[in-house]
Write a structure and sequence with these properties.
The complex is a heterotrimer of chains A (about 400), B (about 290) and C (about 400). With about 400 residues, chain A is an alpha/beta fold. Chain A contains 13 helices and 15 strands. Helices cover about 65% and strands about 0% of the residues of chain C. The chains are: A alpha/beta (about 400), B mainly alpha (about 290), C mainly alpha (about 400).
Chain lengths: ~400, ~290, ~400
């Protein structure tokens, strides 16, 4: 019995080995000229939903511009997708696997923490990376190889602080996630801007990753009686936080940053989500920009053609992160064209000079590698939908 | 901290403690009889959460709840038969490794079947109704949990102290070998223990997740460990002890979080465990039995 | 086949070691083409250290401890703090900055070459863990099997909580984790850059495991085994129970922390969440599959399990299409289900694991094919009691 089991074990392992070899054998057979672009995004973990929307933007961009001509030769652009699982340690492994598949440039990631963790790997391997929606300053600071197409948290924090004060909120509470660079960073920038402009922070609470019970901290917030609650956090946390706050009888406006623009929050929090305010990069109904209008139309058709993507996107809405994903891809293409070759170092050089009019406005990178952007969109949840409230410019 | 805030925190803590108490009963009963820390119990609790999600997708809650309880009981007994019964004469370490193995399997199975992304827990409308008692506001489930816990414990205590089956359970827990010689059907009693433990875990799971609204394959791990600590704290093998331990841990955890030490709330629980093991290994209201620790 | 065993077996061992060394150097040189194999070998070597040190405690001394993840966390964090380059330390601790005394220490240590700083870090990690182990061992080691398990598990969670608490921001960077940890490299000027990716983890693993083997073969080791078999009898024979349990616990924790330090270098960035209970379970799985009480079993299983998990069984996670038909079941997560089933199989039917409590011996290996054919031919006869002594 035991011996036969041992044999069975050995056989299983051998079979597995064979299958493993077989599956790696048949890749890369064609001799087409290919440029590989790495997609470094979370599609699982706490930011899986938003990460996937960003990937969709990149995939759509890839269908729009699938090839690039360099010196008369047509190169096919191949997206190499890896999942960083919204986890900082997984992010390093995922980044390393991108490096070993020899990508010319990397796009991503949703979530600043994973981008910061992987930034060092990109820098060491001298591969440029273009962040789509990672808003923490640390992503690009001190890293010549990291660029990004979105605005930054100090800007976003200021925007929300201005908004809070303009809407008459004199007292605010800040709730942030411990150990999350995005959440605590943005929370801090909001806090600074709000106090500078004369508001009072009445409560400051923190919670742990994967925490699902916010009653204790929310009870404290309720006791402080704020007019405005700023709680930048992940999509998974948002509905729990909103529902539990309302359950405890908190009536203050709940606000957050760009991450909350995801329909799953409305689906899960239901009627309690009404009145939630958030800032974001893009609005699909803004028709002033012809590139944006064209993108919205094309992206919706792309979604309809892929039922699976459509369901994971949570309907036909066009998320800002999808638009940013598209812009990140397009800036990479522009840089490759400008560089004239698929050499990472040349692409990095080209990125510093690239200017491109994208879906989310014009994109040019400053000395830190950040896109110079000065406008944010504020949206609110009304009648179970995200509705445009106003745009805010900060000089 | 104002009085209102204090009362609100107490309410949250007692409610959490009630759910903990129900899970802790499963640990304490199994340990009393098999001398086994059933590591898989926390994952039975987690699976009960997923069962509810699927049950509520097709049926109304009054039917879904009994269905979930039955499914959880089947899972619990199945685990006992498959993973613990074959090892009855093996060293204790082997059974414990087996229970860790089952826990590992259930977590991975849940990840595979339901993905690691949090799944929204269905809303049982009457339980989520918000009540306002003076300045204190909470949903019905928060008020209901401790009350329901106490009722269930009284029923269970009656079962254990005043029925034949309960007497058999106590006998097996006192002396496994002798009770076997006395003609008690050991396997039947052990199965019964798992039935009771799983039922409590299922009810606890409904109360716990209704309040928290999302389930992941790992949402059982930490509550499970805390509930085991609750069982040890109260005195392992003792049902009232498990309940007392559950409430103590629930309340202290809530206050630690409220005071801004949320990272320490888990650590505190384990600190409590180590202290109790050193200074009062029989727990707060456990019987003094030699050579159990 | 007649062989002069006394001469042949050591020769065979040396030959095997030489072959291994040559293979490692070859892989080391071609590490860019064999990236996957290199990273799996690194991880296996690291896990082999933890598995052997867990085995020393659980298999040889009979102390069922589940605190491995906590000790690894200590080792990893101390090593990381020592080895993160001083010039980038501020960007790592960008939220609150590093505590002044630690910074002063790092600046002071900068006179040493990087290689020495890292070795010092690994050693310091081990020592810190050993001190912790000595302290908590005094109360905890009095507890019996499962209580000890849950107490050590609790301890590991306490360490994790302390590391990630905001109060430790200036030392451990709280729950933000540490990055910029240098990878494996010898960093010696006369060698080409980047040499050491495999040699460093393998030589450290060799040293650590070698030391533990020496301990097990010493009179201490025999005392450990006596405690495992029967504590009361061992005490009656004059073995100081608590002292020996403490020694075993301290040694095991030291090497677990060393492996934790290597893990930090392997992962390049760590956070408290890396060291959850599941990490301990992963190691327990390796030890159980290898056989409780077998050093070679643990090593073998560390390599087999890691390779199978990270590489050979990967295909379970991707949809499989044969002849246009998608085979059901194959998708993300299936690999881990197979793995846990395998573990249950071993636990229930194959309790001794790969090696039981025996060690690898050339004699067994050489006679294995013969034994197998013998057993196969006389299969029905041996039936019930014949194999008790294997």
């Amino acid at each position: 019995m035991k011996k036969s089991l041992a044999l069975l074990l050995v056989l299983t392992l051998m079979l597995a080995l064979l299958a493993g070899c077989a599956s790696t054998g048949n890749a890369g057979a064609s001799d087409e000229k290919v440029i590989k672009i790495g997609v470094f995004e979370p599609v699982t973990g706490e930011n899986g939903g938003g990460g996937f929307q960003e990937v969709l933007g990149m995939r759509y961009a890839n269908t729009k511009v699938p090839t690039v001509d360099l010196g008369g030769v047509t190169y096919k652009i191949e997206l190499v997708e890896v999942d960083n699982k919204s986890d900082k340690t997984e992010a390093v492994t995922a980044a390393q696997s991108l490096m070993s598949s020899k990508v010319a440039v990397v796009l991503g990631s949703y979530g600043s923490g994973v981008s910061i963790a992987a930034g060092e790997i990109f820098k060491e391997n001298k591969i440029p990376a273009i962040g789509a929606s990672c808003t923490n300053p640390q992503v690009t600071l001190g890293n010549d190889y990291y660029f990004r197409v979105c605005f930054l948290d100090p800007f976003q924090g200021t925007v929300m602080a201005n908004f809070a004060l303009e809407s008459g909120a004199k007292n605010a509470a800040v709730i942030t996630q411990l150990g999350d660079d995005y959440s605590s960073g943005l929370g801090n920038f909001f806090l600074k801007a709000y106090e500078e402009k004369g508001g009072t922070i009445v409560a400051q609470e923190q919670f742990q990753t994967n925490q699902t019970d916010f009653k204790a901290i929310l009870t404290n917030v309720k006791a402080a009686n704020p007019d405005f609650i700023f709680a930048p956090s992940s999509i998974a946390t948002a509905p729990l936080l909103i529902k539990q706050a309302r359950e405890l009888g908190i009536t203050a406006t709940i606000a957050a940053g760009d991450t909350w623009e995801n329909t799953s929050i409305i689906d899960n929090a239901g009627a309690d989500a009404e009145g939630v305010v958030l800032s974001t990069f893009f609005d699909e109904n803004d028709t002033a920009n012809p590139v944006a209008a064209e993108f919205v139309k094309g992206f919706k058709e792309y979604l309809k053609a892929n039922p699976d993507s459509l369901s994971k996107n949570g309907g036909e809405g066009v998320a800002a992160v999808s638009a940013l994903g598209y812009d990140a891809y397009m800036s990479a293409i522009e840089a490759i064209k400008a560089a004239g070759k698929a050499d990472p170092e040349a692409i990095r050089e080209a990125l510093t000079k690239v200017t491109y009019t994208g879906v989310t406005g014009s994109i040019a990178f400053d000395e830190n590698g950040d896109a110079k952007k000065d406008m944010a969109y504020i949206k609110t949840i009304k009648d179970g939908k995200f509705q445009f409230l106003k745009t805010v410019k900060v000089g | 901290m104002s009085l209102t805030t204090f009362i609100q925190h107490i309410l949250t803590g007692v409610s959490l403690g009630g759910a903990y108490a129900l899970i802790a009963i499963g640990y304490t009963l199994v340990y009393g009889i098999l001398l086994l820390i059933n590591f898989a119990h926390s994952d039975i609790f987690m699976m009960a959460g997923y069962f509810m999600i699927f049950a509520m997708a097709t049926m109304p809650w009054p039917i879904a709840i009994p269905v979930v309880i039955v499914a959880t009981v089947i899972l619990g007994v199945l685990i006992e038969k498959a993973a613990y019964k074959p090892l009855r004469s093996a060293p204790r370490m082997s059974i414990m490794i087996s229970s860790i193995g089952v826990s590992y399997l259930l977590q991975n199975l849940a990840t595979y079947l339901f993905s690691a992304l949090p799944k929204g827990y269905p809303t049982i409308a009457p339980l989520k109704k918000v009540f306002q008692l003076g300045p204190v506001s909470a949903s019905l489930v928060t008020f209901l949990t401790p009350v329901l816990t106490l009722i269930l414990v009284f029923i269970l205590m009656y079962l254990i102290n005043h029925t034949k089956l309960g007497m058999a359970m106590r006998a097996v827990s006192k002396d496994y070998d002798t009770s076997k010689l006395m003609g008690i059907k050991i396997n039947q009693i052990i199965s019964l223990t798992f039935v009771i433990g799983s039922t409590m875990a299922a009810i606890g799971s409904i109360l716990y997740f209704t309040d928290r609204m999302s389930v992941t394959p790992f949402s059982g791990t930490l509550p499970g460990l805390k509930c085991f600590v609750a069982a040890v704290l109260g005195g392992i093998g003792s049902v009232p002890g498990a309940v007392l331990g559950g409430f103590i841990i629930g309340i202290s955890e809530t206050f630690l979080t409220a005071l801004g030490y949320s990272t320490y709330s888990d650590a505190f629980t384990f600190m409590l465990l180590i202290l109790i093991l050193i200074f009062r290994p029989t727990g707060l209201i456990g019987e003094t039995v030699t050579d159990k620790v | 086949m007649k062989l002069n065993n006394k001469k042949t077996y050591p020769m065979l061992s040396i030959a095997a070691l030489v072959v291994l060394a040559v293979l490692l150097i070859l892989l080391e040189i071609n590490k860019n083409t064999f990236g996957m194999a290199v990273s799996i070998l690194q991880k296996s070597a690291i896990l082999a250290i933890v598995a052997v040190s867990m085995n020393l405690l659980n298999g040889f001394t009979g102390l069922f401890s589940l605190g491995q993840a906590g000790f690894m966390a200590i080792g990893a964090y101390v090593t990381a703090i020592f080895s993160i380059p001083t010039e980038t330390i501020d960007s790592v601790y960008y939220t609150g900055g590093l505590a002044p005394w630690l910074k002063a220490m790092k600046v002071g240590l900068d006179v040493l070459p990087g290689f020495l700083q890292i070795s010092l870090g690994i050693l310091a990690g081990g020592l810190v863990a050993a001190v912790f182990a000595a302290l908590i061992g005094i109360p905890v080691l009095r507890l019996k099997s499962d209580y000890l398990a849950i107490a050590t598990l609790g301890f590991s969670e306490i360490i994790r909580a302390i590391i990630s608490s905001p109060q430790m921001d200036k030392i451990t960077n709280g729950s933000y984790g540490l990055k910029n940890i240098p990878g494996f490299a010898l960093g010696l000027d006369f060698l080409p850059a980047g040499i050491g990716t495999l040699l460093v983890p393998f030589s450290v693993a060799g040293l650590c495991i070698g030391f533990m083997v020496l301990v097990i073969r010493s009179s201490y080791g025999r005392a450990f085994m006596a405690i495992r078999e029967d504590g009361v009898a061992a005490e009656a024979m004059g073995i100081n129970l608590l002292k020996h349990k403490e020694i075993s616990f301290i040694i095991s924790s030291f090497f677990t922390a060393v492996a934790g330090g290597l893990l930090a270098m392997f992962m390049r960035s760590i956070e408290a969440r890396t060291f959850q209970i599941t990490l301990t379970y992963d190691i327990l799985l390796i030890v159980v599959i290898g056989g409780l009480g077998s050093i070679t079993g643990s090593i073998l299983s560390a390599f087999l399990v890691t390779a199978a998990k990270e590489w050979w069984l990967r295909f379970f996670d991707t949809p499989l299409v044969i002849g246009g038909v998608t085979i059901p079941l194959f998708r993300t997560g299936f690999r881990m289900v197979i793995f846990s089933l395998l573990l249950m199989l071993v636990v229930l039917f194959f309790r001794r694991g790969l090696m039981g409590n025996r060690e690898f011996a050339w004699a067994d290996l050489l006679s294995w094919p013969r034994n197998l054919s013998k057993k196969a031919s006389s299969g029905p006869k041996t039936g019930k009691g014949g194999k008790k002594n294997d």
